[in-house]
Amino acid sequence: MRVGAWLLCLAASAAAIKFELPASKSPTPMCIWNYAMQDTLAIISINVVPRDPHTAADQSIEVKVVDRTHHNVYLSKKGLVDETRLAINTHHDADLGVCIMNRGKRDNLVSDIDLDVHLGGDAVDYNAIANQESLSGMETELRKLATTADEILEEMEYLKAREQRLSSTNMTVLGVWQVYHLRGFFKRKYLID
After folding, report:
1. Strand pairing of 73-80 and 30-36?
2. Which of 16, 111, 154, 156 is most buried per CB count within 10 Å?
């Protein structure tokens, strides 16, 4: 039971965060990172609300979606206002970063940012699929569970391959160390030259 609950928590790759982003003439990006497997759909919803509506023209919100490992820039968009939805598909297993900056003409401007990041099965709009295919509520839930199970299986296969790779590296290093140690031991005992 605990393992099943842990796996379901692991599979739920959705993050929602709300924060304030001060404006600057040379801003540093505020990045939110999530791990995403290869060929994973990511839906990013950003809602931008300037603290003072009269200063909206003095601020420019920019977003970049990048991955840390391969330095890919999946998406770059400037001048975000109100609510914006972005969709990407990842190319590699890597940390996926949503980096947001607020360029302002003055330094005392602030915008409130509401950021939702949905990865994998959480990014799929099952209500639209249910309406399009005339699915019942139970069939829609089964579709969600099948997607979640596929994601868990894919992640477990990735972890298995990673463990095999690490085990192989460990055995190689251990074998080299043993040969080096035994060679020194036999030299001390004068069994080899």
Report:
1. unpaired
2. 111
**Given pLDDT bands bounded at 50, 70 and 90, which one contains residue 15?**
low
Are the C-beta atoms of 68 and 94 separated by less than 8 Å?
yes
Residue in 38, 12, 39 with CA at minimum distance from that of residue 122: 12
CATH number at 13-123: 2.60.120.260
pLDDT tens string 109-154: 888 999 999 988 887 888 888 888 888 889 989 988 998 999 899 9
Q: What type of residue sits at position 174?
A: L
* Residue ranges per structural domain of the chain: 13-123
pTM of the entire predicted model: 0.70
Structure tokens at 9: 């928590």
